[in-house]
């Protein structure tokens, strides 16, 4: 904790030494967020800008699209345009409120967050019936394998460990979903399962020295060409964004809350010091080279986490508010003239190449999350 305080103070001194970035007006932030969301909605069947997307991207229940649809619920809560809420409900009805087809895979559980929202916004209880059947089956037959990320013995299909949360991305996909479902149904069993599995994954993948998550066990010993550990920006972004959505579900009186607050602050204190002068975070977080490319998905998730954390009083405003504003500025510079978000690293499990013309549903989703959180921070700051 003392080290965290020292790091935060050092970052604050650096921020004071340079001009503080100016917070955009709430209306401007919302307009930019709606612009990217609208482009993605209008191009939901266009995949030419997603060169590395898996074929499953065409399935709205898959995590690639689900990230966008879940983020859209946040925009629907803030926008005066009813098109966003209508699109979510129409999609849910078209998909018959189903989750993904894999019985235990976290990626196939994320879309349930959109259905839970829809149930409370006009769709009714039928919107969560498939989710209840899905999660009841998980609780009745909880996977008990280890978290080692190794190839499936059959030679094809997902690693066996993905029946549990053995990769960092899963901490965005599954635990917030279960906690939302637990609150919606007033059934604590789902929350207990989420807390137990989250701790198991964190104990396994979190590097407490570097205060960052390995993507999965394959990366424990891997290093880049300069001997640095490989901490993937989007992988850690998934975790930070997942922590936001977990904490948003836990009342201040919840005995589990302190654990997540501690982890959130611990990671934030490390990540804020890794932001580049241009406002982006590098695809590989420890790569501080000047030639690292812009990358918007990780940057957007960190911007979301910092803006939200400051707004709710978990993170120090002097340290993290400027970082969130700089992150947002970098993201806005990445939006193409037509509203498409560029510089989104494609589907991967590690730092990789990225181009200005690359986009993805999850990139737009991360942008929308960042925009809605910064909108709240700007609006509340203006009201104080």
From TrEMBL:
<dbReference type="InterPro" id="IPR010905">
    <property type="entry name" value="Glyco_hydro_88"/>
</dbReference>
<dbReference type="Pfam" id="PF07470">
    <property type="entry name" value="Glyco_hydro_88"/>
</dbReference>
<keyword id="KW-0732">Signal</keyword>
<keyword id="KW-0378">Hydrolase</keyword>
<dbReference type="InterPro" id="IPR052043">
    <property type="entry name" value="PolySaccharide_Degr_Enz"/>
</dbReference>
<protein>
    <submittedName>
        <fullName>Glycoside hydrolase family 88 protein</fullName>
    </submittedName>
</protein>
<dbReference type="GO" id="GO:0016787">
    <property type="term" value="F:hydrolase activity"/>
</dbReference>
<feature type="signal peptide">
    <location>
        <begin position="1"/>
        <end position="17"/>
    </location>
</feature>
<dbReference type="InterPro" id="IPR008928">
    <property type="entry name" value="6-hairpin_glycosidase_sf"/>
</dbReference>
<dbReference type="InterPro" id="IPR012341">
    <property type="entry name" value="6hp_glycosidase-like_sf"/>
</dbReference>
């Amino acid at each position: 904790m003392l080290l965290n305080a020292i790091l935060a103070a050092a970052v604050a001194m650096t921020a004071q030494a340079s001009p503080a970035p100016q917070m955009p007006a709430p209306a401007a932030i919302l307009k930019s967020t709606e612009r990217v969301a609208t482009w993605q909605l209008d191009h939901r069947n266009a995949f030419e800008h997603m060169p590395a997307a898996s074929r499953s991207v065409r399935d709205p229940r898959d995590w690639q699209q689900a990230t966008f649809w879940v983020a859209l619920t946040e925009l629907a809560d803030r926008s005066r345009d009813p098109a966003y809420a209508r699109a979510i409900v129409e999609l849910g009805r078209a998909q018959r409120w189903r989750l993904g087809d894999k019985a235990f895979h976290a990626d196939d559980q994320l879309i349930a967050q959109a259905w839970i929202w829809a149930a409370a916004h006009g769709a009714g209880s039928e919107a969560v019936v498939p989710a209840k059947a899905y999660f009841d089956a998980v609780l009745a037959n909880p996977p008990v394998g280890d978290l080692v990320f190794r190839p499936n013995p059959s030679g094809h299909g997902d690693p066996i460990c993905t029946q549990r949360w053995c990769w960092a991305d899963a901490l965005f996909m599954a635990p917030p979903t279960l906690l939302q479902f637990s609150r919606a149904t007033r059934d604590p069993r789902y929350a207990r399962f989420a807390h137990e599995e989250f701790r198991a994954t964190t104990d396994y993948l979190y590097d407490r020295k570097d205060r960052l998550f390995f993507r999965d066990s394959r990366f424990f010993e891997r290093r880049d060409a300069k001997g640095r550990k490989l901490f993937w920006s989007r992988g850690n972004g998934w975790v930070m964004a997942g922590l936001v959505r977990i904490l948003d579900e836990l009342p201040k009186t919840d005995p589990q809350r302190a654990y997540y607050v501690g982890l959130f602050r611990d990671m934030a204190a490390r990540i804020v010091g890794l932001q580049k002068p241009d406002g982006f975070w590098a695809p590989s977080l420890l790569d501080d080279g000047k030639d690292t490319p812009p990358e918007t998905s990780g940057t957007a998730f960190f911007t979301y986490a910092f803006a939200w954390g400051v707004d709710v009083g978990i993170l120090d405003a002097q340290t993290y508010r400027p970082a969130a504003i700089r992150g947002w500025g970098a993201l806005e510079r990445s939006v193409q003239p037509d509203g498409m978000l560029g510089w989104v690293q494609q589907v991967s499990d590690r730092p990789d190449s990225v181009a200005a013309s690359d986009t993805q549903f999850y990139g737009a989703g991360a942008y929308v999350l960042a925009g809605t959180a910064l909108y709240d921070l700007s609006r509340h700051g203006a009201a104080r």
